[in-house]
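Appendix C. Worked example: Maltodextrin glucosidase
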Amino acid sequence: MWAYNETFYQIYPIGFCGAPVHNDGVPAHRILKIGDWAEYLGNLGIGSIILNPIFESDNHGYDTRDFRKIDCRLGTNEDFSEVCKKLHSQNVKVILDGVFNHVGRGFWAFRDVQEKKWDSPYKDWFHISFDGNSCYNDGFWYEGWEGHFELVKLNLQNPAVVDYLLDCVKLWIEDFGIDGLRLDVAYCLDHNFMKRLRSFCESIKPGFALIGEVLFGDYNLIVNDEMLHSCTNYECYKGIYSSFNSMNLFEIAHSLNRQFGPEQWCIYRGKHLMTFVDNHDVTRIASILTNKNHLPLCYGILFGMPGIPCIYYGSEWGEEGVKAPDNDYALRPCFDAPKPNELTDFISRLIEVRCTSDALCNGSYRNVVITNHQLIFERRTETERILVAINASDSDFTAGNGELQGSYIDLLKTGDSSEAAPQTLNGQLSMPAYSVQYLKML
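Step 2, the predicted output written as structure tokens:
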């Protein structure tokens, strides 16, 4: 699976492109802006972009009206085809948000039920009871997503619904050339639907990636050979920022070992979960950290740990944004152009190092040194061994451990590892204050 070796970049298009929050019905070609960033993303080293909803919707994109038409606030299907061609020309693949659990009240099939009630051929596309009424006084009750009745739950056990959705995915592959899907609220989706989606997509486009949004529970239930290739790793998302804010790196070390460690009971060994430090639903990492010196260190862990790293647009230069109690607008801004800085350069180097390292992409995980303020862990394959060393303290530190032996080069200090002068470990490692080291053992 190509996705396991790449870095992803997530964009929320309605916000990114400066579209109105509510669908005003006024066509505009805003989505072309994503294509304008293609060269920047290619230079950054991004392997694939994840686009949150782009199809015609009532408001925020997750309340879909039409899965076959680009939202008029963003542009046309032809506009998006052009965007995909530009991204692919920079070797950036395209992942779309597959919002298959629910639709908006403006969805064409639901509108038909509102009009015709019992006589609608689409009444079984949803979970409807004509013995009740909705909070919108539709004359029937229906199931909404987690109590949000502006989001009408689809009946994924209805073959007609599944066939319709698969036909839409086929259209996206054929017309836009997309390379995968992010499955919204994958923890809610019918397992048989995900199995059918996996086999269907693989038959049309081998290597088509499926990545699920999962907040909790056992990721193995849906990340397996029959369903999804990956899902969001919220446990380690929390562990990263919390470890730095509490100055307790034992927390992230425990989560990583629990998931990927060498013991038989570790639960996700061999899986490639999607890792992140922020996204369109949570406060940005630059706003949540209490010590801004820890910002590059968060990315040091992100790119060193097992998984598929994903960067949220703007966070690569340290953009801030705080989630509000009643909306996410501050998390989804419009930028006129990229604003790269030293943090961006550092992340670009991390991307470059990771994509050429078998150990960082696919290696085993093992903790070597853990203190409250320092963490050294090992990533290893049969051909490569790398030590990732993080010092979150404002003071230099010398780590001591019998395993810190042998010659190495620090991959983050040199553009070409073959030109680096090897250093030697003799049971100790010097860790400068606020530092990240990726030590390739020779």
